[in-house]
Amino acid sequence: MSNHEVNCVSEEGTRATMAQKDQLKEEDLPSDINNWSKHQVRDWVLQLKNVDVSVADILFKQDISGPSLLLLDTSDLINMGVTFGPTKLLIHAREEVIKLKSEKPTSSFKKPGKPSKPYPFCRYHDTFRYIEGSILDVTESGASDLIEPCHEYKAFINTPDEAKMDKFTSEVIRFAAACMNSRTNGTIHFGIGDKPDFVHGQVLGVAVKDKEAYENGRKSAIDGYFEYKYKHTAQMCIKPPRFVEVLNRNETSSDKCVIEVDIEPQSAICEDNIYHTYITKKAKKKTKETESQPSKCFYIRDGGSSRDLVALTKEYQQFIDQMPQLSQLRKNAEEKHFKRIKSTTQGSKLTHMITGGTLSLDKSHFERYIIVTNKSHPSHSENLGFLIELDPTAVLDFDPESAQHGLQTYFDQQSSVSPHLPAKYKITEGVEDIANKLKLTRNTSWVFCNGGIEHETPSDIDQWLMDKGASVRDVISFLCRKDVLPNKRFLVIFLLLSTVREKMDPLVETFSTFWQELRGTDQILCLCDNENAFTSWKDLIETRCGVDISGRCIYELSFAEVNGTILSLWSKNRRAIRFLPCGGESKVPLEKKFERSLNALEVLCVNQCEGGN
After folding, report:
1. Considering 71, 211, 289, 554, which has the largest number of Cβ atoms within 10 A of its Cβ?
2. What residues of the chain score a pLDDT lower than 70?
3. Residue 136's pLDDT is what?
4. Cis peptide before 589, with omega less than 30 degrees from 0?
5. Which residue numbers delimit the SAM domain (predicted)?
6. Helix (H) or strand (E) run with residue 571 in it
7. CA distance 530 to 499
8. Whole-angstrom Cα distance, residue 606 to residue 587?
9. CA 518, CA 467: separation in Å to the nearest integer?
């Protein structure tokens, strides 16, 4: 054997040994084998010592994913063409993985999580998601100002399937009655952990097979627990369950969600009424099961729990006597809350910033646009038509599932896209040659900055900078070269489709790199659709870069308003699309289908008026 061959064998042995050591790291693969894709099964087999690459290819061609891997036996593998030796090694390695996971069933839950805001109260179509293991930054609580919701957490992961619905309905009714009697808004969460088993407020998530069953359970429980005269009131105060998606730590989808029910006891609905609930308990007498008389309960919020006052005669009577005053406090709190009317000029601010002051995209100061974005939501596709019209030179996408069911999928249906990994931007030849290969002037270059194509594995937030940070910096440096894009004539738009919460988030590092390359924020625009997302982003950037980006952010407009405002800045679209005026000097498109449904109305639109006013 030659020295070269010896070295090759040695290197291969070293790589195999290192891979074996790393093969069961929790960060590499989902904790549950059932969640492994066929690509992840292939990667796992490739890491096994003394198992040839051909074995991984056989399993991949047979579409062996996690669930089918668990079912394979020796004869199955041999029938597929795997020889006996590798078969035994593969079966043994699989059992070792199962054993390791069974010894640490809650290991992913034990990791310290990052702070997270709860889902917005009484909202259902927000694009908000939770990250597994993150910690809600609100504690279980009682009434505060009656408008700010109190919270209660239920892990709900150890409840047997057959008992889940009874647990859900009984907890919801108790919490709801307590909030209604205390006249405070509230949210009860199922799939959020509490001490001693978990960190208080830790996002766990639960698998839900039938979402409709939970809504039917809510309705039935209200009918069964509340007095007949208050059933309608309870239906109005106890909102339908909301199922908030829980993402894995690397922001890929999981099969889990957090179930949440909001309680809103509006003063006009509840007036001065009090709400008892009635529980019918089953008891066995001799050999016959009978139903006892319903027991009456009167719940109120007391700190982080719900307390029954029926047996406490004096305290119960005092609470009922003060109900008129409590109802008036609720009414006053609502009036104060509703007086906060949105007054904004961010529509005109957006117009000025995205055109560079020309107020028209037909003659915009900016010749090119770069989009930087993160995890999208299916509902976003309704309001992102402006991206197609901007025809961006490049999109830096940090959603690893964008090509499956994200923004890239939507964009690809409407426009011409060239998908790339960041490594394609590394300068290894002439800049012009690289630009031609990337088709920068012909197609939108879609850069997958956290994997998702070509079997590139996504990285967790804490690992991204080490794994992929350098290659994304190469992309930014390339795009900011004067011989690639016109100097000071391109705009970088940070489109925050998900809230950025952590200082190690890749978007924070990406902003910092653009800020340095462009020597300031004049060529940067940040778009998000709510104040919480803006505040988190602003604080993170100020901590990282020491700059206040408030003046370069649009956050008081919904994405529908952003979309309409930008679309209205093209003269060709003014002829094709009709626009309605909206708050903050913004505009929204009037859909032709909706306009045709208005049989009794004729609509005068902005672009029919002289000067567009």
Report:
1. 554
2. 1-31, 100-112, 280-293, 339-344, 572-577, 584, 592-593, 595-597, 599-600, 607-613
3. 92
4. no
5. 36-83
6. helix 571-576
7. 9
8. 8
9. 24
CA distances to 8, 9, 12, 300, 538 from 1, in Å: 11, 10, 15, 82, 62
**Residue of 501, 540, 543 whose CA lies nearest to 374:** 501
Closest CA to 382 of 605, 591, 122: 591
Which residues make Cβ contacts (< 8 Å) with residue 407, sequence separation at least 6?
373, 376, 380, 381, 384, 395, 397, 399, 497
Contact 524, 552 (CB under 8 A): yes
Tokens of 330: 């609720």
Sequence-ordered list of residues with C-beta below 8 angstroms from that of 251, at least 6 positions apart, any chain: 131, 374, 375, 398, 399, 400, 450, 458, 461
- The predicted-structure confidence for 558-611, as pLDDT tens digits, reads as follows 898 999 999 888 875 444 567 788 876 778 887 755 765 676 677 887 766 655
Instruction: Report how far residue 249's alpha carbon sits from residue 374's, in angstroms, rounded to the nearest whole number.
Output: 14
Q: Dmax over Cα atoms in the chain, in whole Å?
A: 96
* For helices 461-479 and 506-518, angle between their N-to-C axes, nearest 10 degrees: 30
How many CA atoms, within 13 angstroms, populate the side-chain half-sphere of residue 159? Answer: 20
Identify the CA nearest to 508 among candidates 535, 542, 458, 485.
Answer: 542
Compute the distance between CA of residue 119 and CA of residue 203 in angstroms, rounded to an integer. Answer: 12
Place of tokens 């002829």: 575
Rounded CA-CA distance 207/222 in Å is: 24
CA gap 394, 164 in Å, rounded: 47
What amino acid occupies position 74? T
Which H helix or E strand runs over 256?
A: strand 253-263
Question: What tokens appear for 65 in the block?
Answer: 């994913």
Between CA 21 and CA 37 the distance in angstroms is 21
Contact in structure between 526 and 496 (CB atoms under 8 Å): yes
Instruction: Give dist(CA 385, CA 373) in Å, integer.
Output: 15
Q: How far apart are CA 357 and CA 103, in angstroms?
A: 62
Per residue in 477-490, pLDDT (tens digit) is: 999 999 899 889 99
Torsion angle of the four alpha carbons 377, 379, 383, 388, in this order, in degrees rounded to the nearest 10:
60
Q: Are 587 and 579 in contact (CB under 8 A)?
A: yes
Which burial class, exposed, middle or buried, applies to 394 when counting CB atoms under 10 A from its CB (0-12, 13-18, 19+)?
buried
pLDDT of 354 reads: 95
The SS3 assignment for 254 reads strand
d(CA 343, CA 584): 6
Give strand pairing partners of 419: 446
289-328 as b/e, with b when 16 or more CB fall inside 10 Å? eeeeeeeebbbbbeeeebbbbeeeeeebeebeeebeebbe
Structure tokens that stand for 459 in this block: 């990285």
Specify the 3-state DSSP secondary structure of 188: strand
Residue-level pLDDT at 584: 67
For residue 93, give the nearest of 157, 46, 139, 131 by alpha carbon: 46
d(CA 218, CA 342): 34
CB 564 within 8 Å of CB 582: yes
8 A C-beta contact, residue 355 and residue 364 = yes
The whole-angstrom distance between residue 117's C-alpha and the CA centroid of its chain comes to 12
Q: What is the pLDDT of residue 21?
A: 36
Query: Alpha helices, DSSP H only, in 293-447?
Result: 313-321, 323-338, 346-355, 385-390, 402-405, 407-414, 431-438
